[in-house]
Design brief:
Elements lengths: L1 H10 L3 H14 L17 E3 L2 E3 L3 E3 L10 H6 L4 E7 L12 E4 L4 E4 L8 H10 L5 E6 L10 H10 L5 E5 L14 H16 L7 E5 L5 H14 L3 E4 L20 E4 L3 H15 L5 E4 L5 H10 L3 E4 L1 H6 L3 H15 L16
Parallel strand pairs: 3-4, 3-13, 4-7, 7-8, 8-9, 9-10, 10-12, 12-13
Antiparallel strand pairs: 1-2, 5-6, 6-11
Helix pairs in contact: 5-6, 6-7, 7-8, 8-9, 9-11
Length: 351
């Protein structure tokens, strides 16, 4: 009841203010967070990118931009958490207002533009808060360097030893020209630069790429060929969408920015399924976009995702969402005769 009252108040508050309030509550650790945590089931355990995950439900980048509450998220039942997007220098992002909550659509439109404290402060924060679970660091360029590899190299050098994996954001629609990195030559150059860096390190950490949902089948096929040739470690499919707003009902439906939440569920599933088929299951996928309950998460897995992430549904459904999804997936696996979640990956991709 107390959470329901608090949640109702948050939903009536400016989205960025509400987000900061939620971060502050999680930082103070004043809630008995372990009450929200699903106790776990061996059927949900899997090894992806060479990393052992206790369950498939992760926190997407964007919620914990400055790496303040990732350990609290593990207490809420998340199997992994991704912080960022982090840029080399601190930046304010785009002018406000820049986040719009569409309650009728269970969706958010944002044009944040990578606001964050910068890599030095975030690096120090992670150094002082040893991760109690799988931690991904999502990296990106400062606005003025959007089409260059330099900022990605700067960030990966900084966080390589801290993170369990590095997520490379080339797909936010809110940094001008960033999505041009989907170009075959540019993405090949970026992959090679990051792989060259890694080849000189003592350990091999996964480097995975976050891709736009606004690409056609021919582009998926071309990118898949590059990813196979370059032997990348994995993909995050997908980022927010600049398409699909025509059927929204919320008053802010025409605002510029990336759309997330339930309205992009089907679009992201199509991209996941398409990549899975072209990649022949050889490159692991984290599925993102419209994951709100056990059924939507399970459908993403059956479309070809090894793991899933969410953010928007945390806003609308609250702290129980990850644990509820894990509990539901466990039941679905038993219902369908799967002994482990890895057996369900991609079973619907060819339908």
């Amino acid at each position: 009841m107390l959470y329901d009252i608090f949640s109702s108040l948050l939903k009536q508050t400016n989205p960025e203010v509400a987000h900061q309030l939620a971060i502050n509550v999680l930082k103070r650790d004043i809630l008995p967070l372990d009450l929200f945590k699903f106790k776990g089931d061996d059927t949900l355990k899997s090894t992806v990118f060479g990393i052992d995950f206790i369950n498939p439900v992760g926190l997407a980048a964007g919620f914990d931009k400055n790496a303040e509450v990732y350990n609290s998220m593990f207490k809420l039942g998340f199997g992994f958490a991704e912080v960022g997007t982090v840029t080399p220098k601190p930046q304010e992002g785009n002018p406000k207002p820049r986040v719009f909550r569409l309650n009728e659509d269970k969706a958010i439109i944002n044009r944040l533009g990578f606001p964050n404290n910068g890599m030095e402060e975030i690096y120090n924060r992670i150094s002082n808060q040893v991760s109690k679970g799988v931690l991904g660091v999502n990296i990106g360029p400062n606005k003025e360097n959007a089409t260059k590899v330099d900022d990605y190299l700067t960030c990966i050098k900084k966080f390589y030893d801290q993170a369990h994996y590095i997520a490379v954001n080339i797909s936010s629609p809110n940094t001008p020209n960033l999505r041009t990195l989907h170009d075959e030559n540019k993405i090949s150059e970026l992959i090679e630069a990051l792989n060259d860096f890694r080849s000189n390190q003592k350990t091999s950490k996964p480097i995975i790429f976050k891709i736009s949902p606004n690409i056609g089948t021919s582009e998926v096929e071309k990118l898949a060929e590059i990813f196979l040739n370059k032997k990348i470690d994995g993909l995050i499919l997908t980022n927010t969408s600049i398409e699909g707003k025509e059927n929204l009902r919320g008053k802010d439906r025409e605002e510029a920015g990336g759309l997330s939440g339930s309205p992009i569920y089907t679009l992201s599933n199509k991209i996941i399924s398409s990549f899975y088929k072209f990649l022949k299951g050889k490159v692991p996928i984290i599925g993102v976009g419209g994951v709100s309950d056990g059924e939507t998460a399970y459908e993403k897995i059956k479309a070809g995702a090894n793991l899933v992430q969410l953010y928007t549904s945390l806003v609308f459904k609250g702290p129980y969402v990850a644990s509820n999804i894990n509990e539901d997936i466990t039941e679905f696996l038993k219902r369908d005769g799967f002994k482990n979640i890895s057996e369900a990956v991609g079973v619907n991709a060819n339908q």
